[in-house]
């Protein structure tokens, strides 16, 4: 069954004109992660490779393409977790770097801490030789347009975001059966300066434990934190539920208990995987046994050989 990598490009409603690009983006990220696994790389290497590729894609709400805070600035959150050691690394409200997920991994590997925030995270990045990038290089016309719209009287940034843009994440199992997760985001549109969401919080934005599996989540952060969605799903798996059933149970609990919608990618250490969501859509892709699987709408599941070029399925191109 192993190895496998599963990625998501955020829960919500992807506008039609962006849907094909979104599935192409996640498919290509899954391919990159799978190449790492095939080359004998660890699940941690694979999830970081997949997520940094999505951070570099301006279509997604992470790295370049991040949503803007109320002041029109990019502040990003990211998390990695290693299921073998339960070590994790995170950054929150970090600015001016291209790949927060790589910095999160450095926090895990090079410090004795689990999370660095804001200026402290920037100082650490500098000390690690991570290049500082201009703020403008992270901002897209699309995110600026949405930010402006949300400044209008009566705008509802949370409802608007669940409509439009996505956090990115990945989970993987490597040939040794080690699991890992990574999640990265620009957060919620027009958020307060200094707001930290679910993404960098272990148990909420993600969790990985070789004894049960790994999960990466997406959705409204304040809601996900109320139910610690990633850990909740692993708890259901510890009770004997399959990756798919446990993912659905976690999402159903979040819906019934706090009226929250979201999405997850989940693996168990045997290489069983699931991509599930309660939102209208979630771009997802998985790579396993030289096959690429992907989808966007509820119930959609396309499969092809991983060597073949991505075939378009959505009518908007
Ligand atoms: N779209 C998202 O997944 C947003 C992210 N969970 C946050 O609240 O920061």
From TrEMBL:
It catalyses: L-asparagine + H2O = L-aspartate + NH4(+); Cleavage of a beta-linked Asp residue from the N-terminus of a polypeptide. One of its GO terms (cellular component) is cytoplasm. The active site is at residue 167. GO terms for molecular function: asparaginase activity; beta-aspartyl-peptidase activity. It holds the Pfam family Asparaginase_2. Gene3D superfamilies: (Glycosyl)asparaginase (3.60.20.30). The keyword Protease applies. The record marks 166-167 as: Cleavage. Belongs to the Ntn-hydrolase family. It comes from the Eukaryota. Substrate binds at residues 195-198, 218-221. Keywords: Autocatalytic cleavage, Hydrolase, Protease. The lineage of its organism: Eukaryota, Metazoa, Chordata, Craniata, Vertebrata. InterPro entries: ASRGL1_meta, Ntn_hydrolases_N, Peptidase_T2. It comes from Nothobranchius furzeri (Turquoise killifish). GO terms for biological process: L-asparagine catabolic process via L-aspartate; proteolysis. Its EC number is 3.4.19.5, 3.5.1.1. PANTHER family: ISOASPARTYL PEPTIDASE_L-ASPARAGINASE (PTHR10188:SF41), L-ASPARAGINASE (PTHR10188). The gene is asrgl1. SUPFAM superfamilies: N-terminal nucleophile aminohydrolases (Ntn hydrolases). This is Isoaspartyl peptidase/L-asparaginase.
